[in-house]
Amino acid sequence: MKLVLDTNVLVAALVADGLCRDLVRRRVRDHELCTSEPLLKELTATLRRKFGVKTDEIPLLEEYRRRASIVEPEKLPAPVSRNPDDDMVLATAIAAKADVLITGDDDLLCLKSHRGIRILSPRQFLELLDGRKGR
Question: What is the pTM of this model?
Answer without folding.
Answer: 0.92
